[in-house]
Amino acid sequence: MEMDGLLVLCPTLIIFLLALLTFFLRRFFSAPSSSKSKNSTTISFSELVKNGHRFVEWTAELILASPTNTIVLPTSVMTGNPKNVEHVLKANFHNYPKGHNQTSVLADLLGGGIFNADGDHWRLQRKTASLEFNTKTIRSFILGNVHLEVADRLIPRLARAAANDEVVDLQDLLDRLAFDNVCKVAFDVDPARLAGDDSCDEFFRAFESATAICISRFRQPRLLWRLRRALNLGSERQLKRDVSVIDDFAMRVVRERKARTAEEIRNSSDLLSRFIAEDDDFSDEFLRDIVASFVLAGRDTTSSAMAWLFWLVSTRPAVEQRILAEIGAVRTRHGNRVGTLTLDELREMDYLHAAVSESLRLYPPVVLQPRRAEADDVLPDGTAVPAGMSVTYNTYAMGRIEGIWGAEWGEFKPERWLDKEGAFRPVSPFRFPVFHAGPRTCLGKEMAYTQMKAVVASVMERFEMEVMDKGREREVEFSMLLRMKGGLVVRMRERELQQ
């Protein structure tokens, strides 16, 4: 009704806007000639539209076929070249901020939170968060929450499914676990979604909807979504409703936390409390952005990664047996036959760490990371980047480049991450930028590994897993994260207890 009225009352305005949109699209999708290189592959707008439905796989194929592993799209340079990645993320870091074009897309949801900020505002948040993530208190707090979530909710749910010969979508259950855990870590509120509690359902649905709408903005000209937002139409109107729900929830949590005594805040381990303890002059709005940012960062990333790992291991009995043998050996060494796994025990599981890394290589949750060039630049492979152009690295493609991983790049091979003694051997983060690299390296990297290893070990040592349609290759589904299309439907069976 609102759009119909606009068309009837303002035909001149509509004609003007359409003309303006046509002009904008021509400029928006014209690749600057200076971005081209004799070695990089240049892609036309028509090719981009034709392959938009499989953007991640398509661009990966083009990157692998390019002599420099770099391609030039209508609005950005996309690369899988480690030297280019190091240049953008470290050597010339200050020339490649997120940029207003990217931060404006997520501003309604994240405001100026750490994952949507540049410059001094980012450095302040980074410094505070870095101090907290490196404390033993927060690590113990995170691992304790994971153990409770697994022992009290995930294992009983899977045990019921096994007893009733019932199939479950493991990806969905892991999503629920991850959301519960990140809310506990970020602001010490337990949504209990894995337990079936719907008390925080409105916040969850609003966050899920707002994220999807914000991400959809990346796939359309800025003028379109900004016009819809100005006119309060369609998805932009829904986004305002979602953000209102998120704001109400987050502000309520922030104000409740600020109302506690200084001693209570100091004794709390969640990130919100740690930020307040660091500086009680932080505004409510600033703290709200912190809450939203960490929920977004941890909401589905680890769950997506674990779903891919469970699928990969389920089709490789030798890998499964080696993981189980390592878990048993570590337990025996520490005299911990049935208790929860400690931080030290999980750190000793090198083969499991390698299996997680190998899964992340092939199916990284965060596939695309764009940065905007502030000034004209030339990448190490010779590709020119004009000011205002974005440079994006594609982690999905990088996990498939023979020059990085060898001829057997297509094999799921945890051993490639181990030295001759079986100890985990990390590679350069510029070859494996799944957790980003340089000054913006993910602060939660080590804890993400710890969480995933704790969940995977706890589930694998208790259950055998049969994946439905085991012979079918899993398709990727990409919005903001690389997900498994259709979920991971499995049948669980209890393992025989070892004496």
TrEMBL record:
**What is the required cofactor set for this protein?**
heme
Give the GO terms filed under biological process for this record.
Answer: lipid metabolic process
Question: Keywords on this record?
Answer: Heme, Iron, Metal-binding, Monooxygenase, Oxidoreductase
* Single GO term (MF): monooxygenase activity
Q: Key word NADP present in the record?
A: no
Note whether Iron occurs among the keywords.
Answer: yes
Give the matching PROSITE patterns: CYTOCHROME_P450
Binding of heme occurs at C442
Its domain of life reads: Eukaryota
Pfam families, per the entry = p450 (PF00067)
**Family (UniProt):** Belongs to the cytochrome P450 family.
The protein's name: (wild Malaysian banana) hypothetical protein
Q: What is the scientific name of the source organism? A: Musa acuminata subsp. malaccensis (Wild banana)
